[in-house]
Design goal:
Blueprint: H1 2-14, H2 16-54, E1 59-64, H3 69-77, E2 82-93, E3 98-100, E4 103-104, E5 111-115, E6 124-125, E7 138-142, H4 143-149, E8 156-161, E9 164-176, E10 186-190, H5 193-200, E11 205-214, H6 220-229, E12 238-240, H7 241-284, H8 286-294, H9 299-332, H10 334-340, H11 348-375, H12 380-385, H13 387-392, H14 406-417, H15 423-447, E13 462-467, H16 472-484, E14 489-503, E15 509-516, E16 528-529, E17 537-541, H17 542-548, E18 555-560, E19 563-573, E20 582-585, E21 596-603, H18 609-619, E22 624-627, H19 628-635, H20 637-672, H21 674-682, H22 687-725, H23 739-761, H24 770-775
Parallel strand pairs: 5-10, 7-9, 15-20, 17-19
Antiparallel strand pairs: 1-11, 1-12, 2-5, 2-11, 3-4, 3-8, 6-9, 8-9, 13-21, 13-22, 14-15, 14-18, 14-21, 16-19, 17-20, 18-19
Subcellular location: Cell membrane
Keywords: Cell membrane, Membrane, Transmembrane, Transmembrane helix
Main location: membrane
């Protein structure tokens, strides 16, 4: 064993650059695999812990207006599958009446409801994940506003309307299992019972949340149908436990998914490099291996000798990667910890990475064993003659007309006949380019205003929400009257939303949200088919059509106000709002059944969207007016922040990979071509010429690889991103690439890194001379 370790130590010294580069590859692979799994373990633990302590409802129905409490209690008593229930009062206050640091929250999308602590379940927790209780004059603010506004404990929130003014001191930050995610459009602020009683006398509108816990095995769809059939209060949004989990998983799980995806690509790169290095190293040592076989060394002993080096490398890389993954994973887990706490199953963040590192080590060791075993199959004579090396040597012919551009001609000739040697570096360059562009393109897609089309509507400038009010029709008419006479408005469309019953694939009736409005004003791109043209056609969101197992041309039976309506499915579109389950049809809802009016509008050329938004806010005070760019950024803000972190990390890792693989390949190729380099010098080529030839080879490979990586990122990236968003209702997504960054800056940086590395890495050619070859 001591002899083996000495031989390994000497090999490390002899091939320091290659060994170091390979070690870095393996360490990065282990780091990203363990880091991604640590983020995953932390996320699962945090979300589970928050849900265990806060006990969020499995079904939540919001309602504005009056209701019959006795009817609600009777409904609960007559349905055995309801485990527990409660009615939560929430005082909704306009963002224009909430002031922080001298500014209102009017430009923010979220609806803000003031509540007191619940008694039975759906608790609001403090930052220690304990049920929060406040004194008079105090307020608990959601984590969302800590990140968006920088609100901290000790700050003052002011409520102001007319002559009334109320100051509340932030005493705690709130974790809300029901409304944590930025994708949830409502946020709850916790205050005392005394304060809410006082404030409600001067401002705000009461909204009620009817919340339910269900017995194990009961589907929320069963409760939803019974609830709606019984005519229970439903003038507001519906939220299910599965939707809450999806929103939280998407907000926090995207980072873990991308990191693990990068680590898998990196493992592939590491295995490719490992295969190449083992083959190249053993090819150079064929004579030595032949000698060992000739004097009686067993095949197993020779294999053990060569495997020892890589086993040691893998073990060291695994330990370093696992330890480095602790701060790495914690950095990328900071968001989920901020929103959800550390959780109750912290063992996950230690065990998951350990399992990942073990799997990585096993994969690499098995690959080493296979490659080394294959290389030891040659006969003693074949090894000592170097027959395999001779067979693989390539040749090329110089042009008979002479060398007009000698460096270019020779570089392309060597590249042509020795292309197999460069296959690994080509694939690494492709993967690196892909790693840079994938998160970059994802981020630019989400930030692009056209991403609005994945929310079920065409692209527009401004969105007006008229929500759940007893004066809903009056507010809509007032908004329509103003927009009709505003010369700065180019076009607008009003859409009403309500619920109907639709028969699912099992023949059961369930409720679905339907939008009615002129689809031609802001046209939407359909996956299949088109928008409804008449009252006999209906379009479904992708997720609804998938669950109902419906295709374009199929019939749909709908019940509204006790009447059966027959529709033909005319189109399928993508929508990530309302859990991805919506429909579009020309159903004239009675005013009492309209849940919300949404108005989309475009301003004329030259009109500033921000100024028009402020003007509309000052006139339509009862409506929520949001520029579409803000709507997308606020809805997906947390996701975009996380993706920015991943994008930066991917760029740094990819550039490091490019540099390492270039150094490693140059080291191996210059060592193998030392005699060719010496001969070139002898016939008149300078060191500069030979270095230029190497540079042309590597840069040409990278140029082609960048092109391949870009194509891969655009096409395969769309598939990956669509798969990630498929649970929200998106099956096919078009990458909205920022061309200057993706097609100009990114390739330029990659080429520059390689150029600098080639300049430094080819200095070794100065050491090769023809006299050394003659002596050998």
């Amino acid at each position: 064993m001591k002899l083996l370790l000495n031989l390994v130590r000497k090999d490390f010294k002899r091939n320091r650059v290659i060994t170091t580069a390979l070690a870095v590859f393996l360490i990065l692979s282990a780091l990203l695999m363990a880091g991604g799994l640590r983020v995953t373990g932390t996320m699962i633990s945090s979300l589970n812990g928050l849900n265990e302590l806060a006990v969020p409802p499995e079904y939540l129905q919001m309602h504005k207006g009056t209701y019959d409490r006795e009817a609600f209690e009777s409904f609960v008593e007559t349905h055995d599958y309801i485990k527990d229930s409660q009615i939560v009062k929430m005082l909704n206050i306009s963002n224009a009446n909430i002031i922080y640091q001298g500014e209102t929250l009017e430009k923010y999308l979220m609806d803000n409801g003031f509540v007191v602590q619940n008694e039975r379940f759906d608790f609001l927790l403090n930052m220690d994940n304990e049920i929060a209780f406040l004194q008079e004059g105090e307020i608990g603010v959601p984590v969302y506003y800590v990140e968006e506004l920088g609100i901290q404990v000790g700050d003052v929130i002011t409520l102001h309307q007319g002559d009334y003014r109320k100051e509340l001191i932030v005493s705690t930050i709130i974790r809300d299992a029901s409304m944590n995610a930025a994708l949830a459009s409502s946020k709850r602020l916790l205050i005392s019972q005394t304060d809410i009683d006082e404030i409600s006398l001067h401002m705000g509108e009461w909204e009620y949340c009817f919340e339910f816990l269900l017995e194990n095995g009961t589907a929320t769809a069963v409760l939803e149908k019974d609830y709606m059939d019984a005519g229970m209060p439903s003038n507001g949004a519906t939220v299910t436990g599965s939707l809450l989990r999806m929103l939280n998983n998407l907000s926090h799980g995207l980072v873990a998914f991308i990191i693990i995806a990068i680590s898998i690509l990196l493992i592939m790169i590491a295995v490719l490099c490992l295969s190449y290095i083992i083959r190249a190293t053993m090819a150079e040592e064929n004579y030595t291996i032949g000698e060992m076989k000739a004097i009686g060394f067993p095949r197993k002993a020779i294999a053990k000798l060569y495997q020892m080096k890589y086993i040691m490398l893998v073990l060291v890389a695994g330990v370093i990667g696992y330890l480095a993954a602790i701060p790495f994973g914690d950095f990328f887990s900071s968001s989920v910890i901020m929103y959800c706490g550390y959780g109750t199953d912290e063992w996950m963040k230690w065990v998951f990475p350990f399992i990942g590192v073990i799997l990585l080590s096993v994969i690499v060791m098995l690959r080493c064993h296979k490659i080394i075993g294959r290389n030891l199959n040659s006969t003693v004579v074949g090894l000592m003659r170097g027959e395999e090396k001779i067979e693989k040597e390539g040749h090329y012919s110089l042009p008979s007309s002479g060398l007009k551009h000698p460096n270019l001609t020779i570089a392309f000739g060597e590249l042509k006949c020795k292309w197999k040697e460069y296959l690994v570096i080509f694939l690494v360059f492709v993967f690196s380019s892909f790693l840079i562009l994938l998160p970059m393109n994802m981020k630019s897609t989400v930030e692009n205003p056209s991403f609005m089309t994945y929310m079920g509507v065409g692209e527009s400038d401004i969105r007006i929400d008229i929500q759940y009010s007893e004066k809903l029709a009056e507010q809509k008419d007032a908004a329509q009257s103003y927009l009709e006479n505003d010369a700065e408005i180019d076009k607008y469309a009003i859409y009403q939303n309500g619920y109907v019953q639709l028969q699912n694939a099992d023949g059961e009736w369930e409720y679905i949200r339907v939008e009615n409005g002129d689809a031609s004003v802001f046209p939407l791109e359909y996956l299949q088919g088109r928008a409804p043209n008449d009252r006999k056609e209906m379009a479904l969101s992708y997720l609804s059509a998938s669950e109902l197992r419906k295709e374009v041309g199929d019939s749909l039976t709908v019940i509204y106000q006790g009447e059966e309506l027959l529709f033909t499915l005319c189109g399928i579109y993508q929508d990530i709002t309302y859990g991805g389950k919506t429909a579009k049809a020309a159903i004239d809802f009675a005013e009492i059944d309209v849940e919300v009016y949404i108005i989309y509008l475009n301003v004329r050329d030259g009109v500033r969207i921000e100024e028009k938004t402020d003007e509309l806010r000052s006139i339509l005070t009862d409506s929520k007016i949001t520029p579409i760019s803000e709507f997308v950024s606020q809805t997906l803000g947390g996701i975009m922040d996380n993706m920015s972190l991943v994008e930066g990390t991917a760029i740094m890792i990819s550039l490091l990979l490019i540099m390492l693989i270039t150094v490693m390949i140059l080291q191996l190729i210059t060592a193998r071509e030392h005699s060719a380099i010496a001969i070139k010098k002898a016939i008149g080529f300078s060191n500069r010429d030979i270095r230029i030839q190497f540079g042309i080879r590597i840069l040409m490979i990278q140029f082609v690889a960048i092109f391949a990586g870009t194509v891969l990122a655009n096409f395969l990236g769309e598939v990956i991103f669509g798969w990630m968003l498929s649970s929200m209702g998106v099956s096919k997504i078009t990458m909205l690439v920022e061309p200057i960054t993706a097609y100009l800056l990114s390739p330029a940086v990659q080429l520059l890194v390689v150029l600098i590395t080639v300049i430094v890495g080819t200095k070794v050619v100065r050491n090769y001379h023809i006299r050394n070859q003659i002596i050998e």
